[in-house]
Design brief:
single chain; disordered N terminus; alpha+beta; about 25% strand; Beta-Lactamase; five-stranded antiparallel beta sheet; globular
Length: about 170
């Protein structure tokens, strides 16, 4: 499991390193807390997460039936629960909905799962997001929770003076 995580960072980056810092720091903390097993939320919190915790979430797998059941939602990330997207079939999706979309992928792969995506906000601006989700286990073996972190920025063609801020 941990050797797979180390392999994720080999080779050329997909995006400039400044865009990868949050997700990389969270996965590094996850790997340090894991020590050969799935880390618990408590063990992950014992790592030096600093301000990154404001951009993180934790969901309970058992209680998440159709919708994520948040055990923790970072203060900055919570502000995006009412920033809605446009296009597709569902205009009720928020940035937070997209950020939590991969909780089951992380659970199924039993490893960190990365997402990079360009999204269109309800006002027409495009935001580029990068997210990671990773499994947690209270007993170190059976996945009980998923931790995630999200960062992003407006696309170059977004209107100047935009007030949406992602880490």
């Amino acid at each position: 499991m941990l050797s797979d995580v180390a392999d994720l960072f080999e080779g050329a980056p997909v995006a400039p390193p400044k865009d990868r810092r949050l997700t990389r720091r969270v996965v590094d903390a996850w790997a340090r807390a894991a020590r050969g097993r799935f880390p618990s939320w408590t063990a992950l919190q014992d790592q030096e997460l600093g301000a990154d915790i404001d951009w993180m979430f934790v969901v309970d797998c058992e209680k998440s039936c159709g919708f994520p059941f948040f055990v923790f939602l970072g203060e900055q990330l919570s502000k995006f629960s009412d920033v809605f997207l446009t296009g597709g079939e569902n205009f009720g999706l928020s940035l937070l909905d997209k950020a939590t979309a991969d909780i089951y992928a992380a659970q199924a792969s039993e490893a960190p799962h990365f997402r990079e995506e360009s999204l269109v906000l309800c006002d027409g601006r495009r935001v580029l997001i990068r997210a990671v989700t990773a499994p947690l286990a209270e007993d170190g073996r059976r996945i009980t929770h998923i931790v995630g972190a999200v960062n992003g920025r407006f696309a170059h063609d977004a209107e100047a003076g935009s007030d949406l801020r992602l880490a």
